[in-house]
Amino acid sequence: MKSNSPLLTLVVQRLVLIAIFAAVWWLASRRMPSFVLPGPDKTWQALVALWQGHRLFHDIGITFSRVLSGFLLATLVGTLLGLALGANRALAQFFEPLLAVFNTVSSAIWAIFAIIWFGISDATTIFVVFMTAMPLILTNVWQGAQTVDAHYVELARSFRMGRLQTLRKIYLPTIMPYFFSGARLAFGFGWRVSLVAETLGSSDGIGYRLRQAGDLVQTDQVFAWTLLLVALMLLLEGGLLKPLERYLFRWKQRTRD
Q: TM segments (predicted)?
């Protein structure tokens, strides 16, 4: 019973927070026109209408596939480049200014370039997600590679371990926490910037539907799509990413115990 009490307390706190938010929202909506701030009831009706429509799962699926494609490509490129920079100090010093440029340019600018280069297509969103997520993963993997103890690397060489063995047994355990931290951050940013890209350069997806509803002043649908997006991100975070992180780094908990 004691082990369940913190979880129960957390659930009660979340429910109270949701109730307070809904109450403030409802009170504010009563003082404003519905096209400016629709109330929870109108937003719920819009959610039901979206659920009953035939485009909901298509738009969610196409947005998710674009985000996942850009994220996986960013993971592959960012991890390989991060390992290369972490293993070679001269290479890192040469490319460090370029990485600063990538981290400085905003997602909106990448979206404009993507529209010019790829037009209205899936490649536009995938490119923007990639250019946003890749520097984050690269930087974290690079930082993780720099923390690898040089003595362990020398020991691996003395045992004549190959590069793949050294990477798997020496670098990977050290880099994984850094990689996962960067990957979670990159995936969250990827979701957000995908909406920007879809708003500017797509004919379907959640971002496109948000722009369409905004152009038609269907504010209740804007709120409905926004709440749906937040729910999806919380579901991915709490149902997939956090459990995966606990599973991958369960050895840390055993060490503390």
A: 7-28, 67-86, 98-120, 126-142, 170-191, 222-244
